[in-house]
Amino acid sequence: MKVLITGARGQVGTALTAACTEVGIQHLGLGHRELDITDGAAVQAVLARERPDFVINAAAFSDVAVAQGEANLCYAINRDGAANLAQACEAVGAGLLYLSSDYVFDGLQARPYTEKDKPNPRNVYGNSKLEGEEAVREYCSRHLVLRTSWVFSAEGNNFFMRSLERAMSGQPVKGVNDQISCPTWAGHLAIVCVAMLQQVHCNIEPNLWGTYHYSDRGATTRYEFARTIVAQAVQAGLASETQVQAIESADLQNRAEEARQSVLSSDHLFFTFGIRQRGWRQGLKSALEAVRQGQRAA
Ligand SMILES: NC(=O)c1ccc[n+]([C@@H]2O[C@H](COP(=O)([O-])OP(=O)(O)OC[C@H]3O[C@@H](n4cnc5c(N)ncnc54)[C@H](OP(=O)(O)O)[C@@H]3O)[C@@H](O)[C@H]2O)c1
């Protein structure tokens, strides 16, 4: 089985590359400079040349706050780029795994969101991801849409790294206490993606295609997440005790950041693929270990 990864230098793309290497899956990871998914002709040419069994799209405009002011670019990448990949996959008979987000939901529901709940995005990013999903379903018969939440890793600019860097430089760390979801370590997410593709690849029936949710286990607030990041970083000897402040989304003065509850239920994935959730606190330990190893290598 051969897997092509787009957006391969992002946090999930990097983790996917590592997960494929770990289990010995033939793969080709293309970063933004090697393949721009908004270039339909380039996407078609690469797929016709490489003939992968599966494409995992980890390329995205992923900054929820910045997307509010850059809607055109956000839609070009998250919706039109997804459509390009879906059409090219269909043309060569490849399956497409499209990573999507809890932001397709409005965040107003008290219970966890299942795949049967109606999306109702409230910002540009969420809407662009929903329209990306719709394009994938429309153009590519062999598709998996995998929604996830609050992805973190030792790569790139994410809440975990921003909080850790502040703690390491002795600055107070802030986290909103009115947004609730499940942090998800990119390493766990990548293992899930690979496990899904391996099962689909072995399955004679095409009945595994469709939409699924995966988040690491354990709902929390950004504030509690920040507190745990600092506590584990102190325990790991990466930072000294520092103050963690609870704030509210309204304080962020950003329309994309609202009080919300967007816990995703991963039950459908478990009952279909037998894939269990891993805990985000365990993922946090792994991410901190990756930071430590990066420091040693530097
Ligand atoms: N991060 C989260 O909390 C989160 C939560 C739920 C779902 N997701 C989804 O998970 C997926 C991976 O996100 P991530 O956190 O890994 O994001 P990321 O770290 O921002 O990585 C995205 C990658 O896509 C690349 N990219 C941007 N425009 C591109 C284009 N036109 N063609 C090819 N590559 C392009 C970026 O490269 P440059 O930096 O060079 O532009 C970057 O390397 C996305 O679909 C995202 O929507 C993320």
From TrEMBL:
The lineage of its organism: Bacteria, Pseudomonadati, Pseudomonadota, Gammaproteobacteria, Oceanospirillales. Residues 1-291 form the RmlD-like substrate binding domain. Its EC number is 1.1.1.133. One of its GO terms (molecular function) is dTDP-4-dehydrorhamnose reductase activity. Belongs to the dTDP-4-dehydrorhamnose reductase family. It holds the Pfam family RmlD_sub_bind. InterPro entries: dTDP_dehydrorham_reduct, NAD(P)-bd_dom_sf, RmlD-like-bd. It comes from Natronospirillum operosum. GO terms for biological process: dTDP-rhamnose biosynthetic process; O antigen biosynthetic process. PANTHER family: DTDP-4-DEHYDRORHAMNOSE REDUCTASE, METHIONINE ADENOSYLTRANSFERASE 2 SUBUNIT BETA. This is dTDP-4-dehydrorhamnose reductase. Pathway: Carbohydrate biosynthesis; dTDP-L-rhamnose biosynthesis. It catalyses: dTDP-beta-L-rhamnose + NADP(+) = dTDP-4-dehydro-beta-L-rhamnose + NADPH + H(+). Catalyzes the reduction of dTDP-6-deoxy-L-lyxo-4-hexulose to yield dTDP-L-rhamnose. Keywords: NADP, Oxidoreductase. Its cofactor is Mg(2+). It is an enzyme of class 1 (oxidoreductase). PROSITE patterns: PROKAR_LIPOPROTEIN. Binds 1 Mg(2+) ion per monomer.
